[in-house]
Amino acid sequence: MRYPLAALLLLCAALPSQADDLSLKGYFKTYLYSQEPASVRGLPGQADGAYVTNEDKLRLRAFWDGGGRLRAEAAYELDYTARPGELAAARPLPEGYGYRVSDLGRYLSPASGGSAASGALAQNLDRAFATWSPAAFDLYAGRQPLAFGNSRTVNPMDVIAPFPYGTIDTEERPGVDALRVKAPWGSLGELDAGWLPGRDWAAARGAGFLRARQTVGGTDLTAMTASFLGNLMAGGDLARDIGGATFRAEAAQVWAGSFSARRPGDDFFRLTAGAEYNFTPLGGLDTWLEYHYNGAGAASPAGYASLATRTAYREADVYLLGRHYVSGGTSAQLSALVSASLSAMANLDDGSFYVLPSAEWNAAENLYVSAGALLPSGPRARLEGLSARPTSEFGLYDRVFYASLREYF
């Protein structure tokens, strides 16, 4: 069968079970955006002005518990996006997902060219994995989420499927095809290993990792090494509580082409360090501050345009263009049903910054209404002939206002 993980989904449904062994859940989300693309007016192929976009997502989830040692989970999504044609042509939707052996056709309507259509219906088999848990370890096989690191904004060790800063819907990490084993290490530690076979089982398109976590003297320590798309990464993180605050640090070094064609000029180092503290006003004001160093970036806007061909941006999902950043934020529970948050990131090299305010109201049981904005600040790109030259990083970002409704069932 061309889609082996779809076969696993059917297998989960066919497993013998009692009524209380199988549970079905899901949610429906709708987002309304006002999006102003940060483009150079008059540049061919670019959309200018503010555009209204609607996105509707239905996610169905199935959980099966075989009684102690064997469990299975599957999730399927339908996502409909409607937006003006000129915006769709200038900003195509994603065509698919990485680190999957095979996949369902991404767009149901239109089946061809859906990424640039003004109205597109997409599908995603996002989860399809089984878990076997004997006494000594847990084995996960199939399409599952993977995430690494402990930082709030940028995780240097997360090179598989990270969320860029400013992603609005971060509830579900995109599923990847993997075989993963977790085993306890002493009373507080864990050993973790995984293999991602890659598209069509091609080793050059896959990844693998080894990870060890232990608590030493009150400090949580993690060490990790990974190979991905022929590159080698080594990194680690630590976290410790001091005086009521939690201090965190995370770092990783990547050697480009270590298992293919070595590219020492593309090697890069990244580091994130910061602290988090919960203040007492408003019943708890969770506040955090972080510094991020991006060794893959450029020292000034003049170097931003040339980064797209580097290993960090093509294969490690690095997206920040500068080198030095500071970010921070705070969130509060304003009442039993209303919460609010505010965060910001600043590029210390070019002075641009990105502010993200949001608020959420628990309108009813399993029903949430939220609103927010993505507010970039910085000079926009300059038009030079038919090309644009960046003058700041966050000046390249779109200004977005959004409202959403989420219902869980």
Morphology call: globular
Specify the CATH homologous superfamily.
Porin
CATH architecture: Beta Barrel
SSE-based structural type: mainly beta
Residue ranges: pLDDT <50 for 5 or more in a row? 1-9
Q: List how many beta strands DSSP finds.
A: 21
Helix share, percent? under 10%
Q: How much strand content do the residues show?
A: over 45%
**Subunit organisation of the chains:** single chain
**Average pLDDT score:** 92
Radius of gyration from the CA trace?
22 Å
Distance between the termini: 32 Å
CATH hierarchy, class? Mainly Beta
Order of helices and strands: HEEEHEEEEEEEEEEEHEEEEEEE
Could you characterize the architecture of this molecule?
By secondary structure, the chain is mostly beta strands. It has one domain (4-408): Beta Barrel (Porin). 5% of the residues lie in helices and 51% in strands. The strands form two sheets. It has an 18-stranded antiparallel beta barrel. A hairpin with a 4-residue loop joins strand 15 (324-333) and strand 16 (338-347). The radius of gyration is 22 Å and the shape is globular. The chain starts with a helix and ends with a strand.
